[in-house]
TrEMBL record:
Organism in which the protein naturally occurs: Pneumocystis wakefieldiae
Pathway involvement of the protein, from the record: Glycolipid biosynthesis; glycosylphosphatidylinositol-anchor biosynthesis
GO-annotated biological processes: GPI anchor biosynthetic process
Cellular localisation: Endoplasmic reticulum membrane
Protein name: Glycosylphosphatidylinositol anchor biosynthesis protein 11
Gene Ontology CC: endoplasmic reticulum membrane
Pfam families cross-referenced by the UniProt entry: PIG-F (PF06699)
Regions that span the bilayer: 16-36, 57-77, 89-112
Sorted UniProt keywords: Endoplasmic reticulum, GPI-anchor biosynthesis, Membrane, Transmembrane, Transmembrane helix
InterPro entries listed in its UniProt record: GPI_biosynthesis_protein_Pig-F
Membrane topology, as annotated: Multi-pass membrane protein
Superkingdom assignment: Eukaryota
Length: 118
């Protein structure tokens, strides 16, 4: 979480809760489907999973969407706007949810396109 702008010591509860959000969105679905098979995780990280399979597509894009969204969400934290939503970890968690939602929407549209234009 330090990579997203968290202090190593201050805001410990907020950091823990934001880590739980990121885990629930990006990692928990992987554990539910793949279990603890590390080979599948390596395939996911190296983008070697069969992305023609909708389940793999949802898992892969959900994972990358969550963490890319949270990374982008961390951008406004150091800016000096003094807004309430700018405080740690609000933008990171919002970015994670937006990234996950966007990636799942992309999967939905791809599957819809595949179904309609068979």
């Amino acid at each position: 979480m330090v990579l997203y702008g968290a202090s190593a010591v201050a805001s410990l509860l907020e950091t823990l809760l934001s880590a739980l959000h990121l885990t629930a969105l990006g990692i928990l679905p992987l554990i539910c489907i793949f279990g603890l098979h590390t080979g599948k995780y390596m395939e996911l990280l190296s983008l070697e999973l069969d992305l023609q399979n909708p389940q793999n597509l949802v898992l892969t894009l959900g994972f990358y969407g969550t963490f890319l969204g949270s990374w982008v969400g961390a951008i406004p934290i150091p800016l000096d706007w003094n807004k309430g939503w700018q405080q740690w970890p609000i933008p990171v968690v919002i970015g994670a949810y937006l990234g996950y939602s966007s990636s799942i929407s992309i999967v939905f549209l791809l599957c819809l396109k595949k179904t309609i234009f068979k």
